[in-house]
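This week, think about what follows.
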Amino acid sequence: MLRVNNMTIDDGNDRDDFSATGNLPPVERTGASDKAERDRKFSNTMTGTVSTVSYQNTVKDEKDLPWHKRKLARKLRYAFIALLVAITLWGYVLMSENPVRIKRIENVSVSFAGGNEADLKARGLIISGDIDTVLTNVDVNVRTTLNDLPRFKNSVGDIVTATVNIGDIREPGTYTRRIAATSTIGAVESVEPSEITITVENYVKRQVPVTCSFEGELPDGYWHDEPSLDTSILEVLGPESTLKLISRAICVVDLSERTDPVFDSFAIDLLDHEGNVIDSSFVKDTVLATVVRMNILPYIDIPLDQYITAIGDLNEDYEISSISINPAFLSVAATEATLQAIPSSVSIEPINVSEFNETGTYIQKVSMLGLPSDVTLLSDNNFIVTIEVEDKSITTSLTCSVDDANITGRDDQYKYQFTSRNCIVEFTGPARLIKNLTAEDVILEIDVSGLSRGYNELTPIVRIVGDPAWAEDGSVQISSGKIICVLTTATGA
């Protein structure tokens, strides 16, 4: 504003109304043309000298004004009011008109119409493949009103459903069926995808033998018996083409770190002819599991040679050269307490050696006696004991008279004298052959031919009365002592 001769004049920059003082009438804000008119009137009526006053001295700077009086604040206030009014009007229109909207419901699960699967099986048919894969989820577009949209936020599965009708299928084959969707709110506009293709096969059953296999190893010193399965024959129901692939069924028991008996349920795997596991998702109305029972106990190997005993008297002419037992161990399983008591409570059937009357090999069958009743035999309790019997070897020394010896090879020019009247003969060999020998059974032969005058050392030749075979075959070793024969010249020679 400008102040001239005590009058306030609008310069067009201040938008607030004002009143002129003095003789000038009030000037109204009416636009640019009105401002020019005011300037013209002002020029015609103003008298005297006009003094210019600084604008900055008469009007406060905008930053000095309160925030709510600043231009930007006033503009924002007006804009906010306008927005509220617009929203209110739009909300009123929507509430009164309630326009139609398309609501897209995603991932709606699809199922077969009620009773269809049971009816199909009753006709000896079944859907081939995994049902969850065949019945993929769909997206359903529902036409509804704006007011009903919030109702879709909860329990969508109860509001929108999708089904496939297969009640008309009567034989195996491939079929394409439309997916029908319903909604309890609004009306279904479309389904994406709108169809599915299914393959129907004969619904058959097979009986498959079930065996048990193991993986891992029991801890050292533990044994398990043969597993008992509640289900040894499994009746499998499903699509004909897939059941043809099944060769057998197996349940796998992991033995790692097990020390307690097994009494658990284990899954059953179906195997093809090459031993590969078959996907069992196609199997229907069959529990692919069985209960396995199996004992697990600690075990020991009992060395048997220490328990071999003999009864009776062995003929004194013989002796046992070796004895062995096969198998050499008896393996048994039992509780820890029972195993600890076994060594002091068991024995082996004794062997009667009085029946061994000649050399040779004797075979005896024996068993372990005194085993506790709660022991489980892991090997056969029948053993072969082999006994080797041979002659007892003895040495017999006989004193034989030299005077009774047969002297051969004499030369008449010499006189023969022996320094010892006796000769010691030793026999080493089987007792049954030599134990009864006496000096009378021995004949000494002394060959003096070729001796020279003086002292001569000789070894007599030993002969046995009756010339038994053992004296020649080497089974008896015979040795005799040395004798001294003195040769002197005979008188008159």
